[in-house]
Design brief:
8 helices; two-stranded antiparallel ribbon; Rossmann fold; single chain; four-stranded parallel β-sheet; alpha/beta
């Protein structure tokens, strides 16, 4: 079996002991630990700061190449943009990532625009729509898939009614929805200076997903 995972820094394994500057995901991150449990081949395209629309793009591009796909959504406001140089991810209202503005300072203008003019309720609505569209796409392609949240997406704004969209999410394949994210699963685990859970937390996330896969009957 071939496993494909996408996500942000919590899926990449940011702050784990073997992470270096070459952007190779950690062998101690939960995707690698899960792949060991499943005895399968892994491709982990998680990226620190990765946006949700980036994850969708990768899943659609790679759907024919893998047997199981796991999407670990980042914060709902993180999105992917592109220009003549290439793709980059932004999080409106949050700190800038100098990695993608070093040789493209004009991207600061776009970041400032989104930060000043974005609307969180709209972005959360889009996150729900994208979740529904991707789950239906994967189902139509007969792919085993699991979704989960890294952080924040269970803290939706109660002033707005998202019920019509939320009820369309298939909770059988969305682990923890809508009340739990990786943050709840790793509460009390050691964290790095940047707030990422470390080895114990990754073990707990891998075990949580593995048990859910067993519950679904995909493994004995």
């Amino acid at each position: 079996m071939k496993l494909f995972t996408v996500g942000d820094s919590f899926t990449f394994g940011e702050e784990l002991s073997d992470v270096t500057d070459n952007l190779t995901s950690s062998k101690y991150a939960w995707p690698a630990l899960l792949a060991d449990k499943l005895e399968c081949k892994l491709t982990n395209l998680a990226k620190p700061g990765g946006g949700n629309t980036r994850m969708i793009r990768h899943c659609i591009e790679q759907v024919d190449n893998y047997d199981m796909i796991i999407i670990a959504w980042s914060h709902f406001a993180r999105i992917e943009l592109a220009d003549e140089i290439g793709f980059y991810d932004i999080w409106p209202g949050q700190r800038k990532n100098s990695d993608f503005v070093t040789n493209a300072s004009f991207r600061n203008d776009m970041i400032e625009y989104y930060t000043r003019h974005h609307n969180d309720s709209y972005l959360y609505n889009q996150y729900l729509i994208n979740t529904i569209l991707l789950q239906n796409f994967l189902k139509s392609n007969n792919k085993k898939y699991i979704m989960l949240d890294a952080f924040g997406n269970n803290k939706f704004d109660g002033r707005y009614n998202y019920a019509k969209l939320m009820k369309q999410i298939n909770i059988s394949y969305y682990l923890g929805w809508p009340n739990e994210t990786m943050m709840e699963w790793t509460y009390g685990c050691s964290k790095g200076p940047g707030g990422h859970f470390l080895e114990q937390g990754h073990e707990q996330v891998a075990n949580k997903i593995y048990e859910h896969i067993r519950h679904l009957g995909w493994i004995s």
